[in-house]
Amino acid sequence: AGFFKRQWLVCGQLLQFGRLLLDRIFQGFSEQPRFKVNSNGMQNITAPLAQGQGLILLGAHMGGWDLAASLMPTSGFTGEVYLLQYEAQGLTLNKVADHRGRQHVKSLVGHKLEQPILRIRELLDAAKPVAIMGDRPVANHFELVLFCGKLAPFDVTPFRIAAATGAPVLYTFGFKGTGNNYHFFATPARHYQYAPGEDPRLRCHEWTQDFASTLEGFVKKYPSQWSNFYPFWSALPTPPPAPGDAELPKARNSLREELRTPRPSTPGLEAGPTPSGAPESQV
C-alpha cells in the first residue's frame, strides 16, 4: 500500500480495536448478554466435554475471542473456560470493568518465570477447557514458523502440554461482525503424540506451523482485527515479571528478514561458523 492508503488502513484498524475494547467494557458492566454470537463448530467443544474430556482451546490475540467466549452460553455452552493470561501490574482493562459479564471465563494468571502448568494439568484431568493464546510466546518455548511470508515466533507450550496429557487441541477464534454480532469458530479436535524415535522438536514445529497457517487465513479474512501492536516479526514480547522480580530484557529474534529476500552476505564471513547461541539465518 502507498503512504496515504497505509494511513487509512491504520486508522481503520485502530477504530476497530477501539470498538472491541468498548464492547468488552459494555459487557463487563452488564450481567446479561448484550451481544449475539453466531457459532460455527460449538459442537466440537461441547461433545468432548460431555464425554468427560478436557480440552485445550488454542487462540490468538485477534478479534474479540474473550468476549465471544463469555457469550458462549447463548450457543449452548454452560460450563467455564479457563483463560491463561499474563497480566501487567497496575490499572488494566480487566480491572476497569468487573467480570459480571464474564462469569463463564476464569483467569489463570502466569508470569515468565512462573507458569501454572500443574494447574492446567489439573483442569484438563477434571475435563475442563483451558484457553491459551499461541501467538505470544513466553519463556523460551517457541518455534520460528512461516507467517504471512516471514518467520515469526509462535508458542509451542500448548502442543507440548497436549502431547504430554493426551488432551485434544481446538483452534478457536472470535470476531466482531456487523452491529452487535460476534462470530465464533471452533475447529475439529486435533490429537498430538510423538512417534517412537522421532525428534519432538520437529513435530512441534510441524504442529506450530499448522496453527500459524490457520491463523494466517483468518488474518486475511479479518485483517483489521489482529491486535498485535508490536514488531511481531522482529522481537519477542516481554510478559510482565513475577512480583518482586527485576524487569527482564526483551529477547530479540534475529530471523526477521523475508524468506524471499536473503540477508546480504558480508565479505570474508561466507565460510565462517555460526556464532555460538545465534540461530541460523538460512532456511
Give a quick precis of the structure.
It contains 7 helices and 9 strands. The protein is an alpha/beta fold and 283 residues long.
Can you offer a commentary on this structure?
The protein is an alpha/beta fold and 283 residues long. The protein is 30% helix and 18% strand. It is built from seven helices and nine strands, in the order H-E-H-E-H-E-H-E-H-E-E-E-H-E-E-H. The strands form two sheets. A seven-stranded mixed beta sheet has the order 1-9-8-2-5-3-4. The chain is globular and about 55 Å long. Mean pLDDT is 77; it is low at 89-93, 95-101, 250-263 and 265-283.
Which helices and strands occur, and which strands form pairs?
Elements: H1 3-28, E1 36-40, H2 43-50, E2 55-59, H3 65-70, E3 81-85, H4 93-96, E4 105-109, H5 117-125, E5 129-133, E6 142-147, E7 150-155, H6 157-165, E8 169-176, E9 181-186, H7 200-221
Parallel strand pairs: 1-9, 2-5, 2-8, 3-4, 3-5
Antiparallel strand pairs: 6-7, 8-9
